[in-house]
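Why run this: before we spend reagent on co-expression, it is cheaper to look at a predicted model of the complex and decide which construct boundaries make sense. The entries below are exactly what would go into the expression plan.
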Amino acid sequence: REYQGSPIGTDIECEGWRQEAALRMLNNNLDPDVAEKPEELVVYGGTGRAARSWDAYDTIVDELRELGDTETLLVQSGKPVGRFETHEKAPRVLIANSNLVGKWDNWEHFHELEAKGQIMYGQMTAGSWAYIGTQGIIQGTYETLAALAREHYPDNDGLRGKIVVTGGLGGMGGAQPLAVTMNHGVCIAAEVDEDRIDRRIETGYCQEKTDDLSTAIERAQEAAANGEPYSIGIHMNAADMLAEMLEMGFVPDVVTDQTSAHDELEGYYPAGYTVEEADGLRERDPETYVAESLETMERHVEGILELQDRGAIAFEYGNNIRGQVEDHRDLDSAFDFPGFVPAYIRPLFCEGKGPFRWAALSGDPADIHRTDDAVKELFPEKDDLHRWIDLAQEQVSFQGLPSRVCWLGYATEDGLTERARLALRINELVADGEISAPVVVTRDHLDAGSVASPNRETEAMKDGTDAVADWPILNALLNCAAGADIVSVHDGGGVGIGNSLHTNNHVVLDGSDLAAEKARRVFTTDPGMGVIRHADAGYEIAQDMADENNVAVPMRDRNRDR
Amino acid sequence: REYQGSPIGTDIECEGWRQEAALRMLNNNLDPDVAEKPEELVVYGGTGRAARSWDAYDTIVDELRELGDTETLLVQSGKPVGRFETHEKAPRVLIANSNLVGKWDNWEHFHELEAKGQIMYGQMTAGSWAYIGTQGIIQGTYETLAALAREHYPDNDGLRGKIVVTGGLGGMGGAQPLAVTMNHGVCIAAEVDEDRIDRRIETGYCQEKTDDLSTAIERAQEAAANGEPYSIGIHMNAADMLAEMLEMGFVPDVVTDQTSAHDELEGYYPAGYTVEEADGLRERDPETYVAESLETMERHVEGILELQDRGAIAFEYGNNIRGQVEDHRDLDSAFDFPGFVPAYIRPLFCEGKGPFRWAALSGDPADIHRTDDAVKELFPEKDDLHRWIDLAQEQVSFQGLPSRVCWLGYATEDGLTERARLALRINELVADGEISAPVVVTRDHLDAGSVASPNRETEAMKDGTDAVADWPILNALLNCAAGADIVSVHDGGGVGIGNSLHTNNHVVLDGSDLAAEKARRVFTTDPGMGVIRHADAGYEIAQDMADENNVAVPMRDRNRDR
Ligand SMILES: NC(=O)c1ccc[n+]([C@@H]2O[C@H](COP(=O)([O-])OP(=O)(O)OC[C@H]3O[C@@H](n4cnc5c(N)ncnc54)[C@H](O)[C@@H]3O)[C@@H](O)[C@H]2O)c1
Ligand SMILES: NC(=O)c1ccc[n+]([C@@H]2O[C@H](COP(=O)([O-])OP(=O)(O)OC[C@H]3O[C@@H](n4cnc5c(N)ncnc54)[C@H](O)[C@@H]3O)[C@@H](O)[C@H]2O)c1
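The model came back. Tokens follow.
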């Protein structure tokens, strides 16, 4: 099936902009410029889908077109299963994807159900209609590498002169070369699928393609020596690349990976096969595929560990490759290199900061540029943010609906959080006609208070509550109570079935008072969950944040008052 | 700590009745007449607690007393962790208990966290403040046995002349003897804890206590022969009882069990120890305790299977004893006897029917009697319901706040479901002063559309989606969207950690228009989830129900229209 992407402009097909926003975001997810395999409804991240089947997709579209302003549509693993009367301040769409009862919460049972068409993998933003292409992850990757540089090379100009080696140039991983060069460094990224490398080069995320490793290393060393940002996609298996580097005695400054290792069957490619051969093997003999895939993964992790031993800075980049190898190959040392969240991101989560983002439903880039100005106007003192906006305008091409990502948090001014202030300002600009059509505000599921994921976002929590999933559930309920227009809860995502639970929200800024009311509440409660979750776990940054911004932490407040 | 139970009467301590209702229901849960071990905050079902600690309890009480009419309190595994501004139509309290990320979703990890005070077992209605004592389960047990009698003894007067053998006279299990005699049968129930038997006798749920099995069997046979309802609590281990019955060549008509087998450490008692000895062993050497407990459980299941072979009707009564023995003792035949839901309850779930219940916040039994009349007035044609109300008035003593349970469903009249009609009628009676104070309406987590539990409520679903947990999550979100006053999501419950996910809701009927609005919506969407969940799974009763009552089932509706 050929697919065109999202409707744009100021005329709507639905009864209101809230429903229209859901429709456009769903379609934007499947825009050929945004999604990895739109013809199969696959958006990104292995098999992360926007709808369970084309039949389900068509029915969702029909339902959204007719959905009233006080009705709520229910979507269960990508399929519309109900529609009920609720009220104006309630969400218009509620979504639950890929969730399984604990004991059955694994790939095996999931794949059984999937084969019968009874469940769908929602990944993080695929099934919640919030994916905006590689531009969505770019700031997160940029922030992570910037934090790494600050910590390990405090006197360096970012990553200038440093070589970062990684794998995977898919929907998310494709952001890596650009994020490295934005930090002035040099990147070598292995990718088995040549088309993916070409795509990153077309969109300016990556600069050169080769299939010769010696050439890649030479070019990288040259650029690093000259202090020039540069990026190279190397067409080979990432595990093989690391093994060969070790043989050649080459040790990069930083090593990480974003192949889809979370899914050993449909995400990761075993060594020794072309993509076509491997795809054939998967079809013919999935068991052998999985065995080979896990064996390659083990070599892959061993390569990372050996490079770490020889002096490289190593971190896992959220694809659960450590967990996979520990679980299935009994490699005890798998977790001897850290995940990126405890290493670089958690301090931001403590302040309620995370990948806040918005998309212009008009389809007009000028609308996003107006919001860029709004960010700069609202936060005149934040140099980093200004630098980010400039870099993004220059180097990040729009995909599908024009969008912007900005890591904003809870910190309040006049009782309004950073996120709320910006959302209210955008809502005013829509009301005043300075922005041509409503803007939808959402975020990644990887956010301060929205996720339990022991191998990633909640790895190594101070109090050991990594696996406690009450928090994302409360987050989803609270988003619903606060009046988000779409609320979703997913199992799995980037780390695979049974390894995480996480949520999302959308608020449609159509310039109305209702939108302002929803935005003020949702963008207080949602980052607020990040603050209380980390305060409860004993993080001082979060506790200070709560104290300074009047966030209620009942047990702490009461015991202090006494 | 000594504990008094719920405040009653028409004066309130909180800012409004919604908050007051939460406070009274929490306290009612811990009423010594209602809870099993209130001094430890344990309400029922092994270690099902109302709050994580007394410190947490005190803080919840303080928070509820001060909670505004547009604020929402967050409770995470029995501990208050946040308070945010929402709006009037949103819930006042959101609760998530015992939830763990899939891979860690097991007793072992739970107990580790519990030992550090970082999580709490919420059971089903304990942690959601909806437990009302044994009276809460009585109608469910009564309905199940009535369905059994209809199926297996169609020409008999219920269970008259039949002997039912079971185990466990705890919070839930204690309802069994009375439910049997209400169906005119004879019950022998094994219970290791003599105090529990005494308690059932005091409250009229059980008639006689003995510790001699021959006596018990003789008395039972005599009563059965005379067609007299009778109930006997036998003070012994249930596994031993079945083994001895087999030796003696005695085969009852029906065999089941409600010991707390879902929790091998803190719920079930191993044979060969008194309660005191076993409690000491648990403290001293939990590993040995668990080993002995599981060994007894295996003998217990073998006893049930052997009795079934010899002609008894056997069913599991929702304590996961089959799952426990299959998992931990590799007994392949464990599931050779059915669970009670597929056997007797599912057809009711297809119609959105489930254990709807309400409590009079005044504490005045007259208020419940007024609601009893309302049930009869509203449903003049439902003989079964009238009979139930009469039996309940006669034989079910109130515990804590006077309450009533009535299995009602989705069936509509003038667009209002059974549940909505009754709730709206009660709300009017409160408004008119015919009922002296507000009434809170809630239900069990075991309900038509609120639970995924492959060994119990969703065992053997027609399409094999037993473990799909999207449904309870959508149910909780929708309850929230519809404006329930308390919404909760729990893992575990009656079948143990990792074996189920389920939700609850409360709506406070204070006579206001807001209450009417909330009740109309919640009591449509909530049973409605039961209808769509079962329609989606292919149950014709549910599909007919949807067609006849205008419940949207989008994919089905669309494909039929074409
Ligand atoms: N850190 C984060 O914030 C974050 C965010 C999103 C996703 N992720 C995770 O990162 C991973 C990548 O996500 P994505 O959206 O880019 O996935 P994707 O499936 O779109 O892309 C994965 C890419 O890896 C390539 N690949 C697979 N195995 C390979 C191998 N052995 N050697 C070389 N290339 C190989 C594939 O050809 C594909 O292009 C996933 O596991 C995802 O869950 C992390
Ligand atoms: N079917 C349902 O609808 C339903 C509803 C609620 C609870 N349950 C399940 O039923 C079980 C009982 O619930 P409860 O609230 O009564 O629990 P409880 O912990 O209050 O009572 C359990 C009783 O069983 C006794 N017991 C334990 N092991 C025994 C043994 N081997 N022999 C004899 N007696 C033994 C204990 O002394 C205790 O009195 C639980 O597993 C619960 O999860 C089922």
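The first strand of chain A starts at residue 42 and ends at 44. Chain A has a mean pLDDT of 96. Bring this page to Monday's planning discussion.
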